[in-house]
Amino acid sequence: MDCIFCSIINKDEHEGMIFRDDKIVSFLDIRPLSYGHTLVVPVGHYTDFREMPTELMGDYFAQLQKIALAVERATEADGFNIICNTGAAASQSVFHLHYHIIPRYHEDEVFKRLNFKKYDHSITMQSYADKIKKQLF
After folding, report:
1. How far apart are alpha carbons 90 and 13 in whole angstroms?
2. If 5 and its partner were Cys, which of 78, 79, 96, 98 is the partner (CB 3.0–4.6 Å)?
3. What gap in Å lies between CA 76 and CA 31, rounded to an integer?
4. Residue 119, pLDDT score
């Protein structure tokens, strides 16, 4: 398997490493959207969010929160985004599950060009809600 994150996980040291235990590693992104942009990665290789076992999520998200708050304090950010790109269509470029913690500042231009949609009479919010509800069970 040629996975850059698995290579980082298997190294004793890595520049930009923030946290490491037997389940999770966290390190700085080499192409940050803002300084302090951090990745939180499970040690186990799961291609994306869909593959991560639910029994691992509690510990993972607890550590994700701790790291996000540390990033916010360390960078003196006004807030942060936590993002998980799932699949190539969602801009996932490394196919090992990871979350981005992106420090944000008032007036920064990160994500400036998002194209938000509006629901209208032909595409109703409720029709999408109903479709999603059906898939929950």
Report:
1. 30
2. 96
3. 20
4. 80
Q: Residue 131: how many CA atoms within 13 Å on its side-chain side? A: 6
End-to-end CA distance of the chain: 34
Mean of per-residue pLDDT scores for the chain = 92
Tell me the pLDDT tens digit for each residue of 54-75.
Answer: 999 999 999 999 999 999 999 9
| Each residue's pLDDT tens digit, 5-34 | 999 999 888 899 999 999 999 999 999 999
Question: Which positions ≥6 away from 11 have C-beta within 8 Å?
Answer: none
User: Residue 95 has which token pair?
Assistant: 């196919």
The residues that are catalytic are: 98
- C-alpha separations of 128 from 118, 131, 135, 136 in Å: 12, 5, 11, 13
Q: Report how far Cα 72 is from the mean position of its chain's Cα atoms.
A: 15
Q: Place domain 4-112 in its CATH homologous superfamily.
A: HIT-like (3.30.428.10)
